[in-house]
Amino acid sequence: MGHVARVVRRQRGQSAGGLNARLFDHVDLRVASLAAAGPFYRTLLPALGFTLRVDIEGWLQFEAEGEGATEFFGVTEDVAHVPNRTRLAFWAVSTARVDELALLLNEIGARAIEGPGFEADNYYAVYFEDPSGNRLEIVHRTAKFAAN
Asked: Which CATH superfamily is domain 26-141 in?
């Protein structure tokens, strides 16, 4: 039997084992009013690391920096939008960063702010809503959850 050589090419976001190193590509979030939510997200998203603004008609969109395709967060208007119980959580590098961002939330008009505080020894978070009532969170988590 002859020797078969295989060449494995990894794309950005792909680990050596072929699994995704980047687990999501983007979020498309609906809000009741883009005019009302725009100032909030134009400040929040760059603070979270989505620093590249992309102008698309009818959308407010920011991408993460990096080579090739990167994660992005888009916001668009849906006048029939009704918030639900889904919560989007953003990771922060430290508890101090959660605290910094919590102060920013007060300045940009976040609603229903809870925290920041420890939910567990390794889970420090602030919970809040955007101007449309979408539930969001900024968390610093340092360990996996224990498997049952």
From this structure: 2,3-Dihydroxybiphenyl 1,2-Dioxygenase, domain 1 (3.10.180.10)
Domain boundaries, the chain: 26-141
- The CA distances from residue 73 to 50, 53, 121, in Å, are 7, 10, 30
Structure confidence at residue 135 (pLDDT):
98
Label residue 106 by pLDDT band (50, 70, 90).
very high
DSSP the chain: ---------PPTTB-TTSSBSS---EEEEEES-HHHHHHHHHHHHHHHT--EEEEETTEEEEE--SSSS--EEEEEE-TT----S-EEEEE-SSHHHHHHHHHHHHHHT-EEEEEEEEEETTEEEEEEE-TT--EEEEEEE-SPPPP-
Confidence of residue 139 (pLDDT cuts 50, 70, 90): very high
pLDDT at 92 over 70: yes
Characterize the bridge pairing of strands 135-141 and 123-129: antiparallel
